[in-house]
């Protein structure tokens, strides 16, 4: 199987949210659990009336049939019109196209997500190239800066330093019990914007939308978390409209104890197979936290490991054209933050696979910070890692989108479905990422889903979230007439 191009990955994202038709033998060979959905694809809910139309997981808007409206007690709460989901998508697009400001487009889509989740994902996957820059980078950065004004309804869990000792209780506030993936940030280094404190919640919310759109993870299995320990952003501290804790960041042991308790509480409630992704932590904490927990929990740091895996994969793909080895090149990085250091570290590990001693590999890595080369020496680089101009798969789009697409098609499905804990980020570029990870996991005995599916790709597709509307009509049937005969005195 050839490696996936950018366009192919985008197509796979769309497949993840499309109706699927798989051989019964594939589905029957593994444990498949559809909570709340019967064998005919119908959904049973005890909710009725107004609660239905205010629940984004259940609401279909004017796509409810007349039978559903009568049975659910919502007839009259909706206009007397019946629309297909495709027509609803067109209505959303017509409204979307009237917005010229990216933040206005973001708010429109987030409002849709709050109102009708399946329609939101159908819209998102209808043109993921158009909508990804709106629901995540770069627009999400602007949304985070304006998060206090754009906040409408809770889409994640805010845990503060004052809740230390009670995090397990706080997790009970979240309505879903079967959580497979958590994205957590403390808001200290949001994209390139710095410390945004509690406003950083936009990052976990947006990232988990990509788990569903690109990785097919049901949104009900995703939990965004903001750890609010304060902020050192004086503008926010002086802003009466700021929605977070208004004091300087808590650091040191008290901070570490909060992280420890959070990790333990999450795994106690959701199990050791729950993926915990750290996102946008400052350098001072990111590497330290990763090293502390990477071998104890199902966790990874997206900025360090995720970016590195996609960047190095791009370099490995380029080597097939240049017909040489990593150790034949000198790498210069524009920037020396988490992403650059993560990529550099992974390049050194990859060169070690070629038999290059660590000291020699290090000599091939050069860092440029805001004041120039970290070591003053003239070099002739053959690879320049300018992250915003680096196109690892040959498809022209911002590299952040390659990370968001390829990582969440590959890594997230591998972890959430197969419970892969130890992740190998140096992988061949011959097969899609998630198949590489899964194959590696079974060979190393670190996967926990057995029996091992014969067709892993088909199995993944059988488990992905679908944005198709569910049916809420009852399962009508009757008894024999004799059995229903009314007895009289």
Automatic annotation (TrEMBL):
Residues annotated as the enzyme's active site: 136, 207
Cofactor field:
Mg(2+); Mn(2+)
Naming one, the record's GO cellular component terms include: mitochondrion
What Pfam families does UniProt report for this protein, alphabetically?
Answer: malic, Malic_M
Which PROSITE patterns would you find in this protein's record?
MALIC_ENZYMES (PS00331)
NCBIfam families membership: PRK13529.1
Q: Where does a divalent metal cation bind?
A: 279-280, 303
- Where (S)-malate is bound, by residue? 189
- What is the name of the gene encoding this protein? LOC107673657
The note describing how and how many cofactors are bound reads:
Divalent metal cations. Prefers magnesium or manganese.
Which family is it part of? Belongs to the malic enzymes family.
Domain Malic enzyme NAD-binding: where? Answer: 304-420
Superkingdom assignment: Eukaryota
SMART domains assigned: malic, Malic_M
What is the protein's given name?
Malic enzyme
* Malic enzyme N-terminal domain sequence ranges: 113-294
- One function term, GO molecular function aspect: malate dehydrogenase (decarboxylating) (NADP+) activity
A GO BP entry is: malate metabolic process
Keywords linked to the UniProt accession: Metal-binding, Oxidoreductase
Recall the taxonomic lineage recorded for the source organism. Answer: Eukaryota, Metazoa, Chordata, Craniata, Vertebrata
Q: Which species does this protein come from?
A: Sinocyclocheilus anshuiensis
């Amino acid at each position: 199987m050839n490696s996936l191009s950018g366009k192919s990955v985008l197509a796979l994202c769309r497949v993840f949210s499309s109706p699927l038709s798989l051989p019964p033998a594939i589905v029957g060979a593994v444990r498949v659990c559809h909570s709340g959905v019967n064998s005919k694809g119908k959904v049973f809910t005890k909710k009725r009336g107004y609660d239905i139309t205010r629940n984004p997981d259940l609401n279909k808007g004017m796509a409810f049939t007349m039978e559903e409206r009568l049975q659910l007690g919502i007839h009259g709460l909706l206009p007397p019109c019946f629309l297909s989901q495709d027509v609803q998508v067109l209505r959303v697009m017509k409204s979307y196209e009237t917005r010229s400001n990216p933040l206005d487009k973001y708010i429109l889509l987030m409002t849709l997500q709050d109102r009708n989740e399946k329609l939101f994902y159908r819209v998102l996957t209808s043109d993921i190239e158009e909508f990804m820059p709106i629901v995540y980078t770069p627009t999400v950065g602007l949304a985070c800066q304006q998060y206090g004004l754009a906040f409408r309804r809770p889409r994640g869990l805010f845990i503060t330093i004052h809740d230390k000792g009670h995090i397990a209780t706080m997790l009970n506030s979240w309505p879903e019990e079967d959580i497979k993936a958590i994205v957590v940030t403390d808001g200290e280094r949001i994209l390139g914007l710095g410390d945004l404190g509690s406003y950083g919640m936009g990052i976990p919310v947006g990232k988990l939308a990509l788990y569903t759109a690109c990785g097919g993870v049901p949104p009900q299995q995703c939990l965004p978390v903001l750890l609010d320990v304060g902020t050192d952003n004086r503008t926010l501290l002086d802003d009466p409209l700021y929605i977070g804790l208004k004091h300087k960041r808590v650091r040191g042991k008290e901070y570490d104890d909060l992280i420890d308790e959070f990790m333990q509480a999450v795994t106690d409630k959701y199990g050791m197979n729950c993926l915990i992704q750290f996102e946008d932590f400052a350098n001072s904490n990111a590497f330290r936290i990763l090293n502390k927990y990477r071998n104890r929990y199902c966790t990874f740091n997206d900025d360090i490991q995720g970016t590195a895996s996609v960047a190095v994969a791009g370099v490995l793909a380029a080597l097939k054209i240049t017909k040489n080895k990593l150790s034949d090149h000198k790498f210069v990085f524009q920037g020396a933050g988490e992403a650059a250091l993560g990529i550099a570290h992974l390049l050194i590990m990859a060169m070690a696979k070629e038999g290059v001693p660590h000291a020699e590999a290090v000599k091939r890595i050069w860092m440029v910070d805001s004041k120039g080369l970290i070591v003053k020496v003239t070099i002739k680089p053959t690879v320049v890692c300018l992250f915003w101009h680096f196109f690892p798969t040959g498809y022209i789009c911002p590299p952040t989108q390659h990370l968001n697409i390829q990582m969440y098609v590959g890594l997230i499905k591998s972890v959430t479905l197969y419970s892969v804990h130890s992740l190998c980020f140096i992988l061949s570029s011959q097969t899609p990422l998630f198949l590489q990870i899964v194959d590696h996991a079974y060979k190393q005995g670190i996967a926990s889903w057995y029996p091992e599916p014969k067709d892993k790709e088909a199995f993944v597709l059988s488990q992905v979230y679908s944005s198709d509307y569910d049916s809420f009509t009852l399962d009508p049937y009757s008894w024999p007439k004799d059995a229903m005969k009314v007895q009289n005195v």
